[in-house]
Amino acid sequence: MSASRFIAVCLATATMAGVCFAWFAHADAQSGDRQPDAGRGAVVAAQGTSAGVPACAQCHAFNGSSDGSGAFPRIAGQSSYYLGKELRDFASSVRANAVMTPIAKALSPGDAADVASYYAGVDSPFLPLPSADPALVARGEQLAKIGDAVRGLQSCDNCHGPGGAGEPPAIPYLAGQYEHYTAFELQMWRRGFRKNSPNEMAQIARRLDDQDIAAVAAYFQQVRESAQTPQAKESSR
Fold first, then answer.
1. Mean pLDDT of 65-85
2. How far apart are CA 167 and CA 154, in angstroms?
3. Hey, what CATH class is 134-235 in?
4. Rounded to an integer, what distance in angstroms lies between the CA atom of residue 225 and that of residue 29?
């Protein structure tokens, strides 16, 4: 690697390290006084609300594992902060989705906090899925663990944690997430349709080509042994 390229990669890594720190600081600043009720969140997940919000379980399953197709993400064990933030982004249309935007808008802040707390505490099994092309997974592993110096990409693990296990509360786990969902969201960032995380994920996604996106998504879907709920991760520290 040339000296100029090495310096460019180091600067990119340092910049993203600052971004990761900013995410954590923002998460701390956003913590409120109201204590969410996971039990009430379970009711919302199973039955919906009197305001007409459908049950979350219809798409995400009551245990948060969804249906395995990747049309809906696995949300079991994601941090309540992250889940709550995404609901707020859907409600504000910063993250637009034909299904989730109207649902998030119809949820009260308390409903959103409660259901986020419920799913954050769920530890659900992984569904059996077909194996991906080993060469594709190997390329994804390289990007996840090392990055790509030629494109100035740091590793995914730098922010999402070793093995994509997440860095709660702000940064979600990727390990065990459905390949189709991960690839779709990276494409949404790459094409400018997903507006949240414009200075982090959007910039990264634009440096990935279609094959890289497919590779990263395939790799993280099969890294299930590294998937650990934020609660379990926090308790082990």
1. 97
2. 16
3. mainly alpha
4. 32
CATH annotation of 38-120: 1.10.760.10
Q: Encode pLDDT of 158-189 as tens digits.
A: 999 999 999 999 999 999 999 999 999 999 99
pTM to 2 decimal places: 0.82
In one letter, which amino acid is 107?
Answer: L
Cα distances (Å, whole numbers) of residue 209 to 101, 131, 183, 212, 216:
28, 22, 11, 5, 11
Q: How far is CA 145 from CA 71, 118, 151, 158, 208, in A?
A: 26, 31, 15, 8, 15
In the chain, ranges of CATH 1.10.760.10 domains: 38-120, 134-235
Task: Collapse the DSSP code of 63 into the 3-class scheme (helix H, G, I; strand E, B; otherwise coil) and give the result.
Answer: coil
* pLDDT tens, position by position, 188-236: 999 999 999 999 999 999 999 999 999 999 999 999 854 554 444 444 4
Predicted confidence at residue 169, as pLDDT, reads 96
Tokens 């701390």 correspond to 28
List all residues 6 or more positions away from 220 whose beta carbon is below 8 Å from its beta carbon. 140, 144, 156, 164, 174, 175, 176, 177, 179, 182
**Residue whose structure tokens are 């922010």:** 159
- pLDDT for 236 equals 41
